[in-house]
Amino acid sequence: MINGTIFKEMIASGAANLSNHEEAINALNVFPVPDGDTGTNMSMTFNSGLDNVTSSGADDLSTVANALSKGLLMGARGNSGVILSQIFRGFYKSIQNQSEIDALALAKAYDNGAYVAYKAVMKPVEGTILTVIREAAYYTLAYANANPDATVLDVQHYMVEQAKESLDNTDELLPILKQAGVKDSGGTGLLKVLEGFEAALKGEPFTKAETKNEVKKDILAFENDDNEDGYGYCTEFILRLNPQNIDSFNEDKFRSRLGQLGNSIVVVHDEDIVKVHVHTLTPGDALNLGQRYGEFIKLKIENMSEQHDNIVKNASGETKEYGLIAVAAGDGLVQQFKDYRCDIVVSGGQTMNPSTQDFIEAINALNAKHIFILPNNSNIILAAQQAQSVLEDKDITVFETKTIPQGLSACLMFNPEADMTTNVEEMKNAIHHVRSGQITYAVKDTTIDDKVIKQGDFMGLFDKNIAVIADSAYNAAKQLIDLMIDPDESEVVTLILGEGASEDDGQRLADYIESTYDLEVDTVNGNQPVYSYILSVE
Predict the structure, then answer these.
(1) What is the number of other CB atoms lying within 10 angstroms of the CB of residue 3?
(2) What is the pLDDT of residues 161-197, one digit of tens each?
């Protein structure tokens, strides 16, 4: 039988096993772009559940399962994290009000978890975490029904074995997994949780390894203390040192230099990884300092002054007709969304997906009758929708913007004087009429759609496909623009320059477009990470 105490041990073991394999799961990313964060998202999600269980102080099974469900719900990041939260929401619903469960009840709980997870996704894709939980739960429930003498350990072991078998078959269901030579990353994360549960039932629970991943989560969750010279920017980044700097990097000197830029400083150095947290009025200087030593793995900048002002403004009691929330990374892009009437820009994007809790806090900071959310990334939409479902008393519309250009176009069509129906229709139309492209670099060798890609190549992404491979960001952008522009219909091209793009190259690209096509070109310094250029054609 499983009671509350045993289930807490299972949760802790599952969280540890998932955290210990975080980077390996990240590496299963199909596309060779620097955004493989499934392991990070799932680990942060499940640790949020564990933290909520621990802080609840609960010992009875139903309360522990409820605390896990709520913690996962609020901490869910990325599509796999949201689906994971829904699995254990269904798990809790199946065992609520029970003080202990037997083998059959455990199997039924997993089966209900699969059912709830599928209901939460509008268009389920097979060959993913959804397939793994559904198939494993289905066969495990059949096993439990056919073997009334089976123990909870027997059922958990069978669940793990079935999850492994289903995971091994994911590449047969999703051809793109087979091309990349990997199994589904979300399904792999789920398997690690299930293996952790089994280890705890055996009396051999996993414990968290003292790795760089553990420190990273502590930094990303660091409290936003006020900056001495004003609120400033909460600046966090994770740096991979260049090979020539690994042995010579001096943590104390680096911390001292950061001290000249701000306060609330945390620097943790582990082998070739450096994690940094600083509150500063000049985040660009902090990033420039970091970039002298290596390349950014993760990057997050939040305007604490803006957050404070919004909270104060909305606490005044004045109710606005509309409130707009967008997700973006890069100070230039953040300002662009602000200029387009966004009230709050949640920090995040391709390499750091905001959680359900992040959206809820942003929504609660707004005093508005109607709230519009622009996730601007396909891996963030589910978390925004989950926040929408939690705050049922608020009128929230989540636009399924999958790219930054879609979000900016929607903002441009927003009219604070128009009625709700008109705004929603106009903004949705704008989303569907913009073409989006991104230029980034390959982080590994692979072959996708018969395209041979080498680490360090620059790629042009168009409609989620790798459309261009080139030796430089500029050449990739030039080729991608030619593919995106329809000479008969296109009118405006917007070039959003990221961290890896110089203003000279941006001007060269704008000159090329204007000399080749009869249309308008607008250039924006977005300073976004990951993508040297974001391209918009309307």
Answers:
(1) 15
(2) 999 999 998 888 877 777 767 788 899 999 999 999 9
Which residues make Cβ contacts (< 8 Å) with residue 244, sequence separation at least 6? none
3-state secondary structure string across 113-138: HHHHHHHHCCCCCCCCHHHHHHHHHH
59, 152: one domain: yes
Q: Print the domain residue range for 134.
A: 2-201
The pTM for the full model equals: 0.74
Q: Which of 104-113, 120-129, 145-154, 353-362 has the lowest mean pLDDT?
A: 120-129
Q: Which CATH number is 400's domain given? A: 3.40.50.510
Give how many domains the chain has, as a whole number: 4
Q: Is residue 312 part of a domain?
A: no
Q: Are residues 36 and 71 in the same domain?
A: yes
Confidence class of residue 226 from pLDDT cuts 50, 70 and 90? very low
From residue 34, alpha-carbon distances to 124, 354, 374, 460, 530 in Å are 25, 17, 22, 13, 7
Q: Which of 232, 5, 195 is nearest to 100 (CA)?
A: 5
Tell me, yes or no, whether 12 and 125 share the same domain.
yes
For residue 446 the two structure tokens come to 């692979």
Element (H or E) spanning 367, and its range?
A: none
- Matching residue, tokens 């790629």: 459
